[in-house]
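Blinded run. Sample ID left blank on purpose so nobody reads anything into the name before looking at the predicted structure. Input follows.
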Amino acid sequence: MEKKPVYKKWWFWLGIIIVIGLIGNMGDKEAKPNATASEVAAQPKAETVSTEQTAAEKEKAEADKKAAEEQKARDEAAAAELAKKEAEANSVPREHKAALEKAITYAEVMNMSKAGVYDQLTSEYGENFPKEAAQYAIDNIEFDWKQAALKKAQTYAESMSMSDSAIYDQLTSDYGEKFTKEEAKYAVANLK
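Blinded prediction complete.
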Protein backbone atom coordinates (compact mmCIF):
# COMPACT_ATOMS: atom_id res chain seq x y z
CA MET A 1 0.00 0.00 0.00
CA GLU A 2 1.25 3.28 -1.02
CA LYS A 3 1.30 6.10 1.52
CA LYS A 4 -0.44 9.38 0.82
CA PRO A 5 1.59 12.52 1.07
CA VAL A 6 1.09 14.48 4.34
CA TYR A 7 -0.58 17.45 2.68
CA LYS A 8 -3.36 15.12 1.44
CA LYS A 9 -4.34 13.98 4.91
CA TRP A 10 -7.30 15.66 6.63
CA TRP A 11 -5.62 16.18 10.00
CA PHE A 12 -2.80 18.15 8.30
CA TRP A 13 -5.25 20.72 7.00
CA LEU A 14 -7.03 20.92 10.31
CA GLY A 15 -3.68 21.71 12.02
CA ILE A 16 -2.94 24.43 9.43
CA ILE A 17 -6.31 26.08 10.09
CA ILE A 18 -5.74 26.01 13.84
CA VAL A 19 -2.23 27.49 13.47
CA ILE A 20 -3.54 30.27 11.19
CA GLY A 21 -6.33 31.02 13.68
CA LEU A 22 -3.86 31.23 16.55
CA ILE A 23 -1.53 33.50 14.60
CA GLY A 24 -4.44 35.76 13.65
CA ASN A 25 -5.53 36.00 17.26
CA MET A 26 -2.10 37.12 18.42
CA GLY A 27 -2.24 40.45 16.56
CA ASP A 28 -4.73 42.83 18.31
CA LYS A 29 -5.23 41.96 21.96
CA GLU A 30 -7.95 44.62 22.47
CA ALA A 31 -10.04 43.61 19.50
CA LYS A 32 -12.69 41.10 20.39
CA PRO A 33 -14.07 39.59 17.22
CA ASN A 34 -16.55 37.47 19.17
CA ALA A 35 -17.72 40.27 21.48
CA THR A 36 -21.36 40.26 22.37
CA ALA A 37 -23.61 43.27 21.89
CA SER A 38 -23.59 44.07 25.64
CA GLU A 39 -19.78 44.03 25.70
CA VAL A 40 -19.65 46.35 22.70
CA ALA A 41 -22.18 48.69 24.35
CA ALA A 42 -20.19 48.69 27.59
CA GLN A 43 -16.96 49.76 25.91
CA PRO A 44 -17.97 53.42 25.29
CA LYS A 45 -19.28 53.65 28.87
CA ALA A 46 -15.94 52.47 30.20
CA GLU A 47 -14.19 55.09 28.09
CA THR A 48 -16.62 57.76 29.41
CA VAL A 49 -16.04 56.71 33.01
CA SER A 50 -12.31 56.72 32.36
CA THR A 51 -12.57 60.21 30.83
CA GLU A 52 -14.63 61.42 33.80
CA GLN A 53 -12.09 59.95 36.23
CA THR A 54 -9.30 61.60 34.33
CA ALA A 55 -11.10 64.97 34.44
CA ALA A 56 -11.76 64.56 38.17
CA GLU A 57 -8.13 63.62 38.73
CA LYS A 58 -7.02 66.70 36.78
CA GLU A 59 -9.33 68.94 38.86
CA LYS A 60 -8.01 67.40 42.07
CA ALA A 61 -4.42 67.82 40.91
CA GLU A 62 -5.10 71.47 40.02
CA ALA A 63 -6.77 72.08 43.41
CA ASP A 64 -3.84 70.42 45.19
CA LYS A 65 -1.39 72.51 43.19
CA LYS A 66 -3.31 75.70 43.99
CA ALA A 67 -3.43 74.80 47.70
CA ALA A 68 0.30 74.08 47.69
CA GLU A 69 0.99 77.44 46.03
CA GLU A 70 -1.20 79.25 48.59
CA GLN A 71 0.57 77.45 51.46
CA LYS A 72 3.93 78.34 49.96
CA ALA A 73 2.87 82.00 49.72
CA ARG A 74 1.72 81.96 53.37
CA ASP A 75 4.97 80.33 54.45
CA GLU A 76 7.01 82.89 52.53
CA ALA A 77 5.00 85.75 54.05
CA ALA A 78 5.49 84.32 57.55
CA ALA A 79 9.21 83.87 56.91
CA ALA A 80 9.47 87.45 55.64
CA GLU A 81 7.61 88.73 58.73
CA LEU A 82 9.89 86.71 61.01
CA ALA A 83 12.97 88.00 59.20
CA LYS A 84 11.64 91.56 59.54
CA LYS A 85 11.07 91.10 63.28
CA GLU A 86 14.52 89.58 63.72
CA ALA A 87 16.06 92.46 61.81
CA GLU A 88 14.15 94.92 63.98
CA ALA A 89 15.19 93.05 67.13
CA ASN A 90 18.82 93.11 66.01
CA SER A 91 18.61 96.82 65.23
CA VAL A 92 17.11 97.69 68.64
CA PRO A 93 19.73 99.14 70.99
CA ARG A 94 20.69 97.06 74.00
CA GLU A 95 19.40 99.70 76.40
CA HIS A 96 15.94 99.62 74.78
CA LYS A 97 15.83 95.83 75.16
CA ALA A 98 16.87 96.13 78.80
CA ALA A 99 14.13 98.70 79.43
CA LEU A 100 11.57 96.35 77.91
CA GLU A 101 12.71 93.49 80.17
CA LYS A 102 12.46 95.73 83.25
CA ALA A 103 9.03 96.94 82.15
CA ILE A 104 7.79 93.35 81.89
CA THR A 105 9.12 92.63 85.38
CA TYR A 106 7.45 95.69 86.93
CA ALA A 107 4.16 94.94 85.18
CA GLU A 108 4.06 91.24 86.08
CA VAL A 109 5.54 91.23 89.57
CA MET A 110 4.35 94.54 90.96
CA ASN A 111 1.14 94.95 88.91
CA MET A 112 2.09 98.48 87.96
CA SER A 113 0.18 100.62 85.48
CA LYS A 114 1.61 101.61 82.13
CA ALA A 115 2.25 105.16 83.39
CA GLY A 116 3.72 103.79 86.62
CA VAL A 117 6.10 101.53 84.71
CA TYR A 118 7.20 104.44 82.50
CA ASP A 119 7.83 106.66 85.53
CA GLN A 120 9.79 103.90 87.26
CA LEU A 121 11.92 103.32 84.16
CA THR A 122 12.77 107.02 83.72
CA SER A 123 13.07 108.05 87.38
CA GLU A 124 16.51 109.00 88.62
CA TYR A 125 15.53 107.11 91.81
CA GLY A 126 14.35 104.14 89.75
CA GLU A 127 16.00 102.62 86.69
CA ASN A 128 17.14 105.93 85.12
CA PHE A 129 16.64 104.78 81.53
CA PRO A 130 16.56 107.42 78.78
CA LYS A 131 13.04 108.48 77.82
CA GLU A 132 13.44 106.90 74.35
CA ALA A 133 14.28 103.51 75.86
CA ALA A 134 11.36 103.73 78.31
CA GLN A 135 8.98 104.73 75.52
CA TYR A 136 10.21 101.81 73.41
CA ALA A 137 9.47 99.49 76.34
CA ILE A 138 5.96 100.89 76.83
CA ASP A 139 5.22 100.70 73.10
CA ASN A 140 6.38 97.08 72.82
CA ILE A 141 5.21 95.47 76.05
CA GLU A 142 2.34 93.03 75.64
CA PHE A 143 0.42 93.05 78.90
CA ASP A 144 -3.16 93.05 80.19
CA TRP A 145 -3.29 96.33 82.11
CA LYS A 146 -6.86 95.73 83.28
CA GLN A 147 -5.79 92.53 85.02
CA ALA A 148 -2.91 94.39 86.65
CA ALA A 149 -5.38 97.02 87.94
CA LEU A 150 -7.64 94.25 89.25
CA LYS A 151 -4.78 92.54 91.10
CA LYS A 152 -3.68 95.86 92.60
CA ALA A 153 -7.30 96.61 93.63
CA GLN A 154 -7.57 93.19 95.30
CA THR A 155 -4.41 93.94 97.26
CA TYR A 156 -5.87 97.24 98.51
CA ALA A 157 -9.21 95.58 99.33
CA GLU A 158 -7.67 92.65 101.23
CA SER A 159 -4.71 94.24 102.98
CA MET A 160 -6.09 97.72 103.68
CA SER A 161 -9.85 97.04 103.73
CA MET A 162 -10.46 100.06 101.47
CA SER A 163 -13.85 101.00 100.01
CA ASP A 164 -14.49 100.72 96.28
CA SER A 165 -14.37 104.51 95.82
CA ALA A 166 -11.11 104.77 97.77
CA ILE A 167 -9.61 101.96 95.68
CA TYR A 168 -10.75 103.72 92.49
CA ASP A 169 -9.18 106.99 93.66
CA GLN A 170 -5.92 105.24 94.58
CA LEU A 171 -5.77 103.42 91.22
CA THR A 172 -6.32 106.61 89.18
CA SER A 173 -4.36 109.09 91.34
CA ASP A 174 -1.28 110.81 89.91
CA TYR A 175 0.28 110.23 93.32
CA GLY A 176 -0.95 106.63 93.41
CA GLU A 177 -0.98 103.89 90.81
CA LYS A 178 -1.75 105.98 87.67
CA PHE A 179 -4.08 103.47 86.02
CA THR A 180 -6.50 104.83 83.42
CA LYS A 181 -10.09 105.45 84.48
CA GLU A 182 -11.23 102.56 82.28
CA GLU A 183 -8.75 100.16 83.91
CA ALA A 184 -9.74 101.33 87.40
CA LYS A 185 -13.47 100.95 86.64
CA TYR A 186 -12.83 97.42 85.38
CA ALA A 187 -10.86 96.59 88.53
CA VAL A 188 -13.48 97.91 90.96
CA ALA A 189 -16.33 96.29 89.04
CA ASN A 190 -14.61 92.88 89.17
CA LEU A 191 -13.52 92.87 92.81
CA LYS A 192 -14.73 89.86 94.76
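Unblinding after everyone has recorded impressions. Helices lie at 10-25, 37-91, 94-110, 114-122, 131-140, 145-160, 164-172, 181-189.
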